[in-house]
Amino acid sequence: MVQVQDRETGLSKNEYLLAGSVSGFVARAVVQPLDVIKIRFQLQMEPIEVSRTSKYQGLMQAVRCISKEEGAIAFWKGHVPAQMQSVTFTSVQFLTFEVILSWLREVNSLLISDNKIFGLPITYKPIGNFLCGCGAGSLAAVVTQPLDVLRTRFIAQGEPKTYGSMSHAAVSIITREGAQGFFRGLVPSLLLIAPQTGIQFAIYHSLNQMINQGKYYLHPNLIDKSPQFHSGNRPVAISFLFFCHHQLNCFTNLMSPNSKVLFKV
User: Whereabouts are the Solcar repeats (predicted)?
Assistant: First the structure.
């Protein structure tokens, strides 16, 4: 089977898929406790401050409270659907980005000649990368939204548990809320993820191009400018990109305006 390689990185789509999956898995395992605390703060109706009415009054106090009441294992509630979401999201996102980018290049080659349009020079790469990133992130968000709902439900539930397993939770949501229950909060998620991933991909590819062209000011003895150096380190850079994405996504989900509705059972 012939594998299509990206002309800029020399990586096949399978290598992109592997890089995205591994980075998503590692990132989720690291930030899961923070995700649990973040969602507990989201669901708390009282203000996050030192008062008798607030259960969670700060980061360290929340850590102590959850550990005391539910045990350390509570920080990994919902970890299975979270891992499924993380790996699926990064894989779909990166593969979709490359597919859209390849299609955009073909369209560009048909519409644009001599790197000019209406007689003016163009620099379409950053814009193209941004648009491709927006599309890739949006598709990944739609595909993984049901897993995100399951993840959040498991993290939010206390004792006694409302959901005993993923299958039980899925059946319960379908029965009580219908299929649309799996897509609660999708609109704010898209409003967040689309520009976020677009900016990430645009910046990543722009910086990657600058490095390849030697536009940096490090001591020449510290950086090997050979093609082997760049080819060997691009998978690391790709994994780091998605690691940062998941850490940002862990905190920026606070934008969701209907989180309280999401967890009514």
Answer: 11-103, 124-210
User: Which residues in 234-245 are b (16+ Cβ under 10 Å) and which e?
Assistant: bbeebbebbbeb
Reading the block at residue 207, the tokens are 């910086």
CA dist., res. 246 & res. 207, Å (int): 20
* 3-class secondary structure, 16: helix
Is the pLDDT assigned to residue 223 strictly greater than 90?
A: no
Q: How confident is the model at residue 76 (pLDDT cuts 50, 70, 90)?
A: confident
Total number of domains in the chain: 1
Domain span at residue 103 reads 13-29+75-262
Contact in structure between 88 and 147 (CB atoms under 8 Å): yes
Contact status, residue 19 vs residue 239, Cβ threshold 8 Å? yes
Q: List the one residue out of 88, 14, 23, 4 whose CA is nearest residue 237.
A: 23
Asked if pLDDT for residue 59 goes beyond 70, the answer is yes
Burial class (CB in 10 A: 0-12, 13-18, 19+), 28: buried
Q: Flag whether 216 is in a domain.
A: yes
DSSP per residue, 118-174: TTEE---HHHHHHHHHHHHHHHHHHHHHHHHHHHHHHHH--SS-S-SSHHHHHHHHH
Dihedral over alpha carbons 144, 147, 151, 156 (to 10 degrees):
100
> pLDDT band at 136, cuts 50/70/90?
very high
**Is position 6 within any domain?**
no
> Is residue 209 domain-resident?
yes
The pTM of the full predicted model, rounded to 2 decimals, is 0.63
For the cut 90, the answer to whether the pLDDT of residue 154 exceeds it is no
Residue 45: its pLDDT value, please?
65
